[in-house]
Amino acid sequence: MIAQNNVRSTNNDPVESSESSPITGSAGSGAGASRLFRHFGSLFSPPAPSTDPAGYVEFGSISDPSASSGRTLGTFAGVFCPVALSMFSALVFIRVGFIVGNAGLYVTLLQFLIAYVILLFTVSSVCAISTNGAVEGGGVYFMISRTLGPEFGGSIGTLFFLANIVGCGLAISGCAEGIIQSFGPTGDAGTSGSIPDGRWWRFLYCSSINTLMLIVVLIGAEMFAKTSVVILGVVVVCLLSTYVSFLTQGPIDVPLPHENHLVNFTSAWYTGLQADTLWANLYSNYTKDYTSNGNQVNFAVVFGVLFSGVTGIMAGANMSGELKNPSKSIPAGTLSAVLFTFLCYMALAVLMAATTTNTLLQNNFLFLAPINLWPSFVTIGILTATFSTGLSNLIGASRVMEALAKDRVFGPLMSFVVKGTYKANPIAAVIASWVLVEAILLIGSLNTIAQINSVLFMLAYLATNLACLGIEITGAPNFRPTYKYFTWHTAFIGLLGTGIMMFVINSIYALSSIILCMFLVIALHLFSPASQGAQWGSISQALMFHQVRKYLLMLDSRKDHVKFWRPQMLLLVSSPRSCCPLIHFVNDMKKGGLYVIGHVKVGEFADNDSSSDPTIEEYTQWLSLVDHMKVKAFVELTLSRTVREGIQHLIRIAGMGAMKPNTTILGFYDEEQSRDFFEFEESPYRTNEFDGNGVKLFPYRKSGETKALEAMEYVRIIDDVLRMKKNLCLCRHFHRLDKQMIARNNHIRYIDVWPVNIFDPKNEDPFDVVSQFMMQLACIINMLPVWKKLELRVFLCESETVPENSTSFDRPAEHRLDQRLKLLRISATIHKIADWNKDIDFAKHRNILKQFTGKTDSNQVMAEENINRSKLYMQRINQIIRDKSNATAVTFMYLPTPPASASVDYTQKCHHYLDLLTELTFDLPPTILVHGIDDVTSTTL
Fold this sequence. Notes:
This protein is elongated. The protein starts with about 30 loop residues before the first helix and ends in a 10-residue tail after the last strand. It is of the alpha/beta class. The protein is built from 33 helices and 18 strands.
């Protein structure tokens, strides 16, 4: 295995980089939803001037947005109307009396204030996001997914889809109540008893309304869109008739609905404006809900019903792509609609409290019709408000579902939605939404549905505030909303408010929705296409950058302590094709530390060269390699005139701050034939990913090709690494490493450590820095699951004969080594190699071998006889080690320092130094020659 022995020149080996086209977003996914209001925009705003058909103006263009095709809506028609209509919903005519009758006027006004404060701060976040870029189809899903990333966006989008489903069911239930009130057994329209009532009759009416909505969406959605402003006008007129009736009507005895079995009387009084009535309705008086089997009402139930009626603030932001001036229309239209509905609700609550007895408010939620001067107005108002809101929710749910399908958030699971689209209308999504609404209608009680609806919408609003808060905290420079009243304080208050009130409404529903959201986040993180996060941008990346930068600045290398030392690896690789097992092994050896894969590309960055830096083009390929290898590593590439100079660059620049590599790893310099692990049949790394367009990425040196690196240059690199105060590992024979075989084969049983400097052997060697460093690395490897079953052996090489009858601790070296291993908590067995050089004159060879290391006399000339003797000595030592390595997985050996560069015959000594290391490691298992310079172990707490 050779690292840096085959470096391609930028002049001779150009690398073609394939450019993958970006995955397009769901720009058109909201076309159906936007059609709801597109056609009536001309009623209130002049048509946009004609432009080039292809001249779509993207966000950030200096051109006038109104000039872009399709942008025809103004503030009133495009934002105010849809928001106001959605916020009136089923609440305004059906449930305000229920709220006032149970909570009292004071608590009701407080609840409206809390709800609208939450809405106001959430609107601030919505305006910030929608004025920071064009919001397309999918509404809140689009905003959150493009801000928080696919995991959070997909999960919140799914919950928002469910919220629309529940909202549609809520509106349909309200519409059915209005029908029963007008045409049921106690009808107010003069047709008493014309239609039957009961649980399953109501489900039949709800299903009929739902089916009618389905037909409208499938056939006449555009016709509904043309009349939406008119519908809002009708609702406002009906609401005004209610105000007039409160001010003019006198006392009336109002009959109670027949389904109210909680009381034994049949009617209650409407008093008209009276101070006594107002006084009696000021304080809370919670009772039971006759529409939900007599369930007890409390603050949470009332607030859940109240909040369910005011969840339409996203309707204007959904129209961003159709507005002539989104940055002005969305804030102005949404805020004005919020203020308008707030005043309407507050006035309605005060008038109800001042005119209607508590008994009537609690026992007839639909009393507005019989006390109205024109009862039909209330019926019309209920039907139009609930039907239009339900229809909008059904359309919105289908469009969110379509957006999820187009983004392939759930992979092929929702492909039927994309296939089931006809003339830009997602037929399959509409039908699927209709089926889910039917399931919600089985719940029956409007008040129960309202709590579920409120919790789901609150979770969506919480995520919107979280998105804005996260972006603001990270200080992302591209987050520049034109809405000036947004700060992180508004987002935080909105986040806190929605989070608290979710649990106030119903802790079980809130906890269940959060658990479901987290489950979806995890599932989408594991299974959603990874490319989406890169395409959309994910706030998690911005947050991680912000936190990593902060903690990197706090991480002070001057405060490093040996107790917390861990290996920070820089693996220098020439071609990953030939060293896949080594890349994986170093990943195991890093023990949670920094792991950098470095590569030097030989070439010059000439001033007159118009081509770009080749390392930029190759960087993506190396990142793909890291993904394929499934290692937790960074990649550093550099361009240099020589390999040696490039390695110096990488050692200096790799990492950041105190997070810099402390250990450099090189492949061994030998003549062994490299193997292509990407093509090898039985290789676990086999892939065709890097064989595109007839060009093999990451080429390696084949048989017969000359090395790009000279032996002396390689030795100089070793010397450079040590002089730069980095620990050094030279790795040989790692093409033989097979972790799968280690895991399933009981024949391989050991990790061996030879803590003796073969070039200068002494009994004290096991206690120097180098020996302790290699034992530390071996111990780290032995801690991992695959390697844990192997036994760690430390070989103690003795130069003197030891009497056979001696005890285990008569020898000082063995005793000291055993004590050291215990102090360092290293579980290893000591194996003595007595008389390991008994056939050789040890002292003579020690003096000869010293000539090849940095300790040699620079003026001493090597004799040919000494060179031959040293080779024979190394072969003898190699034989001893091989005899002990039949069942060894990995061997750690002591790497002596290279010859001093100022010595005589330096070139010759470099060659002999490598020759001796080659003889020493010949035919061994995967071997690591280690030279450590740092203290890496501690015996103290």
